[in-house]
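Key result, reporting period 2: structure in, sequence out.
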């Protein structure tokens, strides 16, 4: 199985758990729940992407050395 896919499956729930600790409700207008959820999902995906690529690149570089 692809290493990146495994990392995505492990990191995405972790980022969701970490982003739950942030209070982003005050950033949005009142009754804009759908837009807030979309931003939350996009932040989870973006953070997961960055973390997985960092970990995978680190793994690849350490394997070469």
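The corresponding designed sequence is given below.
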């Amino acid at each position: 199985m692809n290493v990146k896919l495994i990392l995505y499956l492990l990191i995405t729930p972790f980022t969701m758990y970490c982003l739950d600790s942030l209070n982003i409700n005050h950033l949005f207008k009142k009754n804009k729940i759908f837009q807030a959820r979309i931003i939350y999902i996009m932040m989870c995906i973006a953070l997961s992407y960055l973390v997985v690529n960092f970990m995978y690149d680190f793994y690849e570089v350490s394997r070469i050395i």
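The mean pLDDT is 89. The chain has one domain: 3-64. This case is discussed further under Risks and Mitigation.
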